[in-house]
Prior knowledge:
The chain is mainly α. It has helices spanning 7-54, 63-76, 78-104, 109-125, 128-169.
Amino acid sequence: MNKNIGPIYKVKKAAADQAQNELEILESENLALISTNQKKLESLNTEMESTLSDLKRVQLSGFATRLEGSERAEQRSDAISYAVLFITLLFIAIELAPILTKLMTPKGPYDHALAHHKGLYTSKYESPYVKAKMHNNSQKEYYKKVYDHRRKEAIKAEKELSNYALQNRV
Length: 170
């Protein structure tokens, strides 16, 4: 009646030992692959971090950011730099067109009418006699307004005094 290790245990033990041996073989083969892959991953991570740190992330989304982006694209491609130059010259031409047109055209009826009205304005408002007259008129108006104001205040004060005297008399 001694208990011993049975045949089922021996089969299971042999299968477990064989699985353990296969695991150790796979681990030894794959450890080298794992370590090389980890080294590659670390180098890629450091490269990605350095690339991301080199990038300038601009939070602006306005006109200045677009100009900066076009400048970067312009540095990489000759076609884009020619396009930017053409667009710049186009805007300059559009802005200068009215001025150049005005300089190239001869004097017309509008210019003569404008000169006539300028002459009338100058003779009416900018001559020394007119300026002196306007100054005197403004001084007369000022003194008239001051006099009117003082007279109204004096009348108002007289009324208050008379009302006070009437109330105290009764």
